[in-house]
Amino acid sequence: MNNLKRATNATKVIFLVCGLAVSSWAPMIPFVKDKLQINDGSLGLLILFLGTGAIITMPLTGWLIHKTGTRIVITVASIVIAVSFPIVLWLNNWFEIAGMLFIFGSGIGSIDVAMNTHGVQVQNMAGKHIMSSLHGLFSVGGLCGPIVVGVLIKAGLAPAVTACVISTSLLVITLTQFSSLMDQNTEHEIAEKFSNSTEAEGSKKFSLLNGAVLFLGVMCFIAFLSEGAVLDWSAVFLRDNKGVDKAMAGVGYASFSVAMATMRLFGDRIVAKTEGKQVVIYGSMIAFAGFMLVVFAPWLFAVLIGFVLIGIGAANIVPVFFTAAGRIKNVTSSKAVSAIGTMGYAGQLAGPAILGFIAHHFSLPAALFVTGLLLLSIGLAYQVKSIRNVQ
Known about the structure:
The chain is mainly alpha-helical and 391 residues long.
């Protein structure tokens, strides 16, 4: 029981510090752009290398976890992130930065899969829901990252030195939690108990063809696309379509982020009192209502309420998906989590392009309206799936 408590606390710390470290990259982007003196197109292509590194690494991480265990992968990924992040800020050549961002993204993708897999296994061992609060702590770290970076740079530290401070903190905290994370033998015992993987050893390599994995992956794709829509388009929407001043255009995403982080911290209690299916169904309906307010409300206050509703509704959908992935029969939790995580991350990367295409041919409000419909479809699909399972 003591080992379980230590593993739970260590997992919480890893989620929190990783959220802080990953989000610290965003405020560094303008410094990189100014240093290289590049346009938005070149910057977008540069950032794409980070996402590409993550997407390529995530499917491989499930295999690595099965071979070495999550705590080894978490530690190695932390080292990769901690080393590559400051180097990105030190380099002065576009191609060198692109290559280092690919490595940085690989570390992010790998640690994302590893810590979610570890979280699922701790949750299974504990017999109670913790995934929502874990994602809540990641969101809290994500909110703190830009603040910490801003304070350090305001204090006079150079961006590269600031990145070193963030990276050192990540590395020190991860290494101090290493012994508290579950070892490989314990993880395999839990995985076999909840996935019956010993019954279908040959099916592991074909986990992506598993119907449950594909279903959750598509749902994750939509959920991450929706979150990415708010991240990438909310400020532009408020400025261009609602007349909000440029300096205040980030208030929409801020409202969404605070609501999501808060809701995730309380999400485990909600899931425990209801069930995952209801969280997905009603959450998607609330998020859909939020998108409708954002698109159609004529008053800024109502629009901001809409962003809050999106955060509340969408907050616990992804944690429920990861929990479900960890309990798919005949598929190990590491491979299921890596599969749906990859599809989800693909949605987050593809989202801006898809919504940009819709906005270009119709309008940005139309693109956000479609995003709301996609989120609503998650709840409808879950309802239909539940009815079929009962029948």
